[in-house]
Design brief:
By secondary structure, this protein is α/β, with parallel strands linked by helices. It contains 11 helices and 16 strands. It has 2 domains: 203 residues, Medium-chain alcohol dehydrogenases, catalytic domain (Quinone Oxidoreductase, Chain A, domain 1), CATH 3.90.180; 137 residues, 3-Layer(aba) Sandwich (Rossmann fold). The strands form 3 sheets. Strands 3, 5, 6, 7, 8, 15 and 16 form a 7-stranded mixed β-sheet that branches. It has a 6-stranded parallel β-sheet with strand order 11-10-9-12-13-14, sandwiched between helices. Strands 2-1-4 form a 3-stranded antiparallel β-sheet. The protein is globular and about 60 Å long. The two termini are 13 Å apart.
């Protein structure tokens, strides 16, 4: 079979590799039919997020079941499924608590499309076939009538945007939400869409990019255009019980934190652009800000996202700006479009 391999910054190519095989009773072999480009993928492809080559790319996928291990029940050959991007067993204590990003059965960070980032290379979704471990737990049936292209981002970015606002809005129904957009472009927009779907009375989106501002406005947000070097004054004196930092850069995180109301919640969807960052801890302490920074617990979060999608309240397709053939995926990884989905 073939898979798309990252060989270094700007160097992506389709290469031949042996077909994956079922190696345990809980495995499944899946044929990807729609693969969304994660916000992190272009940064990897361009070398902005350093990753040691070589490895196969792609980790947001909807696929068709080709083969099932003996212990995998509830699925059929030919069935279409959503595959959360992180490996998780479903049985360990962290998984049982809903912390599927911290599964104790695999090395921390183990995921599709990120090479040995977590100590175990699962291969990438931009491939003819993918082996899915713990398939009895990992696989989620694609609901009838849901376009695989629309669902392709649910394994990561859609769920990531949703988790930024779901719990805080459950605690404070209708609360205003601020989203600072930027280098996690689709995650920020999915946070906007999720906040609107979950009933926020006012969603404000700040960014410098015209395409993203237009998409956010179409989702129902009030938009504010502000360059990165002028983010500090973007919202004036307005404060929000819920804020989201999808900028990744320090000025965006600083705005999100400073605009968080006393006893509010701020979530960063990235660890930032450098290994160490400074936080205004004294101000956060005095205001009682709850700050969360982590990867999404994809398998635990995706079912709630699917419920919103199938109910017609959340449309991930509204943010997809381009659909690209697998044959053009190497170039598509470098395309400046907001959200791309690759199809065979």
């Amino acid at each position: 079979m073939r898979h798309l391999v990252f060989n270094g910054p700007g160097d992506l190519a389709w290469q031949e590799t042996p077909d994956p095989r079922v190696s345990g009773p809980r495995d499944a072999i899946v044929r990807p039919i729609a693969v969304a480009r994660c916000d992190l993928d272009p940064a990897i492809a361009l070398g902005l997020y350093p990753m040691k080559p070589s490895f196969a790319m792609g980790h947001e996928m909807v696929g068709e079941v080709i083969e099932l291990g003996d212990a995998v029940s509830g699925f059929q050959i030919g069935q279409r499924v959503i595959v959360p991007f992180q490996a998780s067993c479903g049985d360990c204590v962290p998984c049982q608590r809903g912390h599927s990003n911290a599964c104790a059965s695999v090395a921390s960070g183990t995921a599709f499309g990120l090479g040995p980032h977590g100590g175990l290379d699962l291969g990438g979704a931009l491939a003819d076939l993918v082996r899915v471990p713990f398939a009895d737990h990992m696989l989620l049936p694609l609901p009838d009538g849901l376009d695989p292209v629309v669902a392709a981002g649910i394994p990561d970015n859609v769920s990531d945007g949703y988790r930024c606002v779901a719990e805080p809005l459950a605690a404070i129904p209708g609360a205003p939400v601020l989203v600072v957009g930027g280098l996690a472009p689709s995650v920020g927009l999915y946070a906007v869409a999720s906040a609107v779907a979950l009933g926020s009375e006012r969603v404000v989106y700040v960014d410098h990019d015209q395409d993203r501002l237009q998409l956010a406005a179409g989702l129902g947000a009030s938009v504010i255009e502000a360059p990165v070097d002028r983010l500090a004054d973007a919202v004036g004196d307005e404060r929000f019980p819920i804020t989201v930092d999808a900028c990744v850069l320090d000025p965006g995180r600083d705005l999100a934190l400073s605009a968080t109301a006393p006893c509010g919640t701020c979530t960063s969807v990235s660890g930032g652009a450098s290994a160490r960052s400074m936080l205004p801890l004294q101000s956060m302490y005095l205001k009682g800000v709850r700050y969360e920074v982590s990867r999404v617990h994809a398998r635990a979060t995706a079912p709630a996202v699917l419920d919103l999608v199938t109910a017609g309240r959340l449309d991930p397709g509204a943010i997809i700006t381009k659909v690209v053939s697998f044959d053009d995926a190497a170039e598509g990884m470098l395309d400046p479009a907001v959200k791309i989905v690759f199809v065979p």
